[in-house]
Amino acid sequence: MTILKFLHTPILKRLDIFKDTKGKSGVYCWINLLNGKYYIGSGVELNNRLNDYFQDWYYKDRANLVIVRAILKYGLGNFALVILDFTENEDTLSREQYWLDELKPEYNILKTAGRRPSKGFKHSTESIELIRQKALGRKHSEEVRKAMSDNRKGENGSFFGKTHSEETKANLRYIALNRTNKPRPGIEVEVLDLKTNQTVIYDSIRDAVKGLNTHLSTLFRREQKDIKKPFREHYFISYLLYNN
């Protein structure tokens, strides 16, 4: 498969994300749909890692991360989530490194998998150059590369059953580079009053929260679990995807 999972509106798909990634290790990618920039990350417990992005505390505790600042600036609704790899635990960092090298994501300050930036810490120009030269100079002999390649083939490889290739990179680049020229999707909420038979369409979930005097988490949960039961036995709620 080319892309394991592509979620255009992850903010409404938390339950699907949890189910798809529970008990799995893997590599993920956030794509900013407004400017086409990437962030690559990974997790041994992928569901827990991705769940962080839906928690308020995470944005306060990780405010130094570029991806966090970007999500706060543009809103999570303007990001798509792509699951690039499901991996064995021991292969997770190597697969993250593969995608860092292949996609060169703009939101990743550190280009080495497994490293996290220290708050307030900056490399000197000399240190950055040494790191860059070390990375560029890390080459294997033809024999070693062949042995590594052979070892990754077949059922022994964590990539068995997947065909990530130039096609995958092309697809991701196409999504990112063309997104700014396309209408941006949004979510409308249609509320039918079962007593008066009147329908109100809200421009966003937050507007519906105010109109119904309820909580954001309540409407998210109803959408995620596809709850059809009338809200408060009074309102029938539908979620509509539209293009601005």
UniProtKB/TrEMBL annotation:
Domain of life assignment: Eukaryota
GIY-YIG domain ranges (all copies): 23-109
Classification via SMART domains: GIYc (SM00465), IENR2 (SM00496)
Any one GO MF annotation of this record: endonuclease activity
NCBIfam families, per database record: grpIintron_endo
Family from the record: To endonucleases of group I introns of fungi and phage.
Protein name: GIY-YIG domain-containing protein
